Amino acid sequence: MALTDEAIDKIKAMIVDGELAPGSRLPKEELLAAQLGLSRNSLREAVRALTAMRILITRQGDGTYVSSLEPHLLLESLSFAADVSQGRAALQLLQVRRLLEPQATGLAASLLQPEDLDELRTILERSRTVATVEEFVAHDTAFHLKIVEAVGNPVLSMLLQVVSTRTQRVRIVRGSQASDALNNAHADHEQILGALQSRDGLLAAAAATVHITAVERWLAASLTEEPTQTTDD
Q1: What string of DSSP letters covers 11-60?
Q2: Where on the phi/psi map is residue 134: left (φ > 0), alpha (ψ -120 to 50), or beta?
Q3: Under DSSP, is residue 221 helix (H, G, I), strand (E, B) or coil?
Q4: Inter-residue contact 204 to 105 (CB < 8 Å)
Q5: N or C terminus: fewer CB in 10 A for the chain?
Q6: In what helix (H) or strand (E) does residue 112 lie, and over which residues does it extend?
Q7: What is the pTM of this model?
Q8: pLDDT over 80 (residue 80)
Q9: Which of 42-46, 70-74, 76-80, 130-134 has the lowest mean pLDDT?
Q10: Which residues are within 8 A (CB) of 25 and not within 5 positions of it... i.e. 6 or more apart?
Q11: What are the φ/ψ torsions at residue 132 (nearest 5 degrees)?
């Protein structure tokens, strides 16, 4: 095991065992290094890595602290993995979204307030006037996030953002027949909003399932398409 990995594991063990509680300040570098039997260089590398994971936070001029360790905060570090995922990995992330988001959409049907429904309508209207795929995806992301946030579970909201990031959505739409994909997405969004306005949780969940399944199909189709071959006469 690399020395940095060993250092990371030792600090994690202190957190798991309760020696370092959420929000607590780490001992001074030289003391912690001696306590864990590590070099100060290995300890510094471990702290950098754990900070990137949002397990630790560094406050300039004050020291290093254990973060709140709330699950949705720790999940943020996974967004990059979703951003760079392509091919089968991206398809697997969409499958996770299909398992989770329809249920959240169904739950939201009884929780969204009238002003929330008005905001969703505004988002959809704006999405029809965009000039670029990126603009559409921004509205698409806002639409789905607004619905999921009504459930009031930040872990669920962050997890769904992780499995379907804006970067990933742009890539999928660009890889499909964009005009058809956008038209179908507009129709699907209307079905979802209509079900939510009717407070019909089952219908909302079904509409969300249809929508996400369609996105899966666009991506799956792009994976099976062979590059066009050209020959010289």
Answers
A1: HHHHHHTTSS-TTPBPPPHHHHHHHHT--HHHHHHHHHHHHHTTSEEEET
A2: alpha
A3: helix
A4: yes
A5: C
A6: none
A7: 0.74
A8: no
A9: 76-80
A10: 63, 64, 65
A11: -135, 160
Q: According to DSSP H, which parts of 85-200 are helical? A: 87-108, 114-127, 133-149, 154-163, 166-175, 178-197
Task: Determine the pLDDT at residue 177.
Answer: 64
Which residue, 3, 56, 1, is CA-closest to 27? Answer: 56
In this prediction, residue 193 has a pLDDT band, given cuts at 50, 70 and 90, of very high
Q: How many residues does the chain have?
A: 233
Spatial distance between the Cα atoms of 64 and 43, rounded to a whole number of angstroms: 12
Q: Contacts by 213-216 with C-beta closer than 8 Å and gap 24+? A: 213/98, 214/184, 214/185, 214/188, 215/94, 215/172, 216/91, 216/94, 216/95, 216/98
Q: Is the pLDDT of residue 174 over 80?
A: no
Beta bridge partner(s), residue 58: 64
